C-alpha cells in the first residue's frame, strides 16, 4: 500500500470516528482500512488510535500526526492539480448535418473556443456525407447507420423522428392511426444520404410496421374514405432546414 494511502486512511478514520465509515468514504473494504492503520502504526512505532467495541479516539501522537498528515495530503493534491494544461492550438475541421450542426454543434464549438482561444474550428455543415480524407475533415458527426470503414467511431447518442401534419390536412384527410396508414397519405421528407437511413416504423403489436410509406412507394389502394384521396405523393426536400417550412409546398405528413 502506498504511504500516502496510509495517511489518507488514517485521516479518514480520525475524521469519521469509525473504521466502517472511513471505509465507505474512501471506497475501501474495512479489512483494507484496518491493514492500512496497522501498517502506519508499525512504521511509526506508536499507537495512533485507541479502539474499544464502542468508540474510537486518537491518541496524543495520533492527533499530532493527523494535523501533519492533512497538510501533506493537501500539498500533494495542490501539486498534482496545479500542472498547467497543455496549450491547444491549430485548426479542427468538423462536419455535421445542417440542422443538427446549427442547433447542437455550433454552441459546443463556441464554448470550446472560449476555453481554448488558441484553437480554430472550421464547421462544415452539409447534409451530404463528405469524404473525410478528400475534404480534410478531422471530426464528422453522422446520424443513422454507418457504413463499414477503418475510421474510429464513437456513438454519441440517439436522435428520434416525429411524424407531424397540419390541423387542416388532418381535418380533410383524417388522422393516421397506425404506421401502415401512411401509405395513403402525402408525405414530406428529406432527400440525401440520411433520408433513407433508419426509416422503418415501429408499430404496436397488432399494427403492421412498414417502410414503404416513407420511401414513396405505392403499397395498394384503400377503400371507403381513403379511396377518394389522390395517389400517394412524396415531396423530397433537399435543404436540411426546409422540412419545417415544407407546408409551402403543399399539405402532407412530414418526418422531422
What this model shows, in words?
- The chain is α/β, with parallel strands linked by helices and 256 residues long.
- The protein folds into three domains: 3-81, Orthogonal Bundle (Arc Repressor Mutant, subunit A); 84-159, Periplasmic binding protein-like II (D-Maltodextrin-Binding Protein, domain 2, 3-Layer(aba) Sandwich); 163-255, D-Maltodextrin-Binding Protein, domain 2, CATH 3.40.190.
- Helix content is 34%, strand content 14%.
- The chain contains seven helices and nine strands; from the N terminus they run αααββαβαβαββαβββ.
- It has helices spanning 3-16, 19-26, 30-44, 60-81, 98-115, 132-135, 167-173; strands spanning 49-51, 56-58, 90-96, 119-125, 139-140, 163-164, 187-190, 234-237, 253-255.
- A four-stranded mixed β-sheet has the order 6-9-7-8, with no helix packed on it. A three-stranded parallel β-sheet has the order 4-3-5.
- Strand 1 and strand 2 (56-58) form a beta hairpin.
- Helix 1 packs across helix 3 (30-44) and helix 2 packs across helix 3.
- The radius of gyration is 32 Å and the shape is elongated.
- Mean pLDDT is 75; it is low at 195-200, 202-228 and 230-250.
Topology, element by element:
Layout lengths: L2 H14 L2 H8 L3 H15 L4 E3 L4 E3 L1 H22 L8 E7 L1 H18 L3 E7 L6 H4 L3 E2 L22 E2 L2 H7 L13 E4 L43 E4 L15 E3 L1
Parallel strand pairs: 3-4, 3-5, 7-8, 7-9
Antiparallel strand pairs: 1-2, 6-9
Amino acid at each position: 500500500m502506498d504511504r500516502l494511502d496510509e495517511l489518507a486512511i488514517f485521516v479518514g478514520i480520525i475524521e469519521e470516528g469509525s473504521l466502517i465509515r472511513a471505509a465507505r468514504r474512501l471506497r475501501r473494504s474495512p479489512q483494507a482500512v484496518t491493514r492500512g492503520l496497522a501498517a502506519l502504526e508499525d512504521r511509526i512505532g506508536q499507537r495512533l488510535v485507541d479502539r474499544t467495541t464502542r468508540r474510537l479516539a486518537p491518541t496524543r501522537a495520533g492527533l499530532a500526526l493527523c494535523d501533519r498528515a492533512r497538510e501533506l495530503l493537501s500539498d500533494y493534491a495542490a501539486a498534482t492539480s496545479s500542472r498547467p494544461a497543455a496549450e491547444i492550438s491549430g485548426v479542427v475541421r468538423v462536419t455535421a448535418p445542417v440542422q443538427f450542426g446549427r442547433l447542437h454543434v455550433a454552441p459546443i464549438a463556441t464554448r470550446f473556443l472560449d476555453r481554448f482561444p488558441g484553437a480554430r474550428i472550421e464547421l462544415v455543415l452539409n447534409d451530404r456525407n463528405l469524404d473525410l480524407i478528400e475534404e480534410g475533415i478531422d471530426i464528422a458527426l453522422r446520424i443513422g447507420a454507418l457504413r463499414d470503414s477503418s475510421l474510429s467511431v464513437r456513438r454519441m447518442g440517439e436522435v428520434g423522428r416525429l411524424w407531424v401534419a397540419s390541423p387542416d390536412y388532418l381535418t380533410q384527410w383524417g388522422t393516421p392511426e397506425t404506421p401502415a396508414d401512411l401509405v395513403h397519405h402525402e408525405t414530406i421528407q428529406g432527400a440525401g444520404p440520411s433520408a433513407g437511413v433508419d426509416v422503418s416504423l415501429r408499430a404496436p403489436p397488432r399494427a403492421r410496421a412498414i417502410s414503404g410509406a416513407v420511401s414513396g412507394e405505392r403499397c395498394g389502394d384503400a377503400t371507403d374514405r381513403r379511396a377518394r384521396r389522390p395517389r400517394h405523393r412524396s415531396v423530397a426536400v433537399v435543404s436540411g432546414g426546409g422540412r419545417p417550412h415544407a407546408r409551402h409546398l403543399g399539405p402532407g405528413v412530414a418526418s422531422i
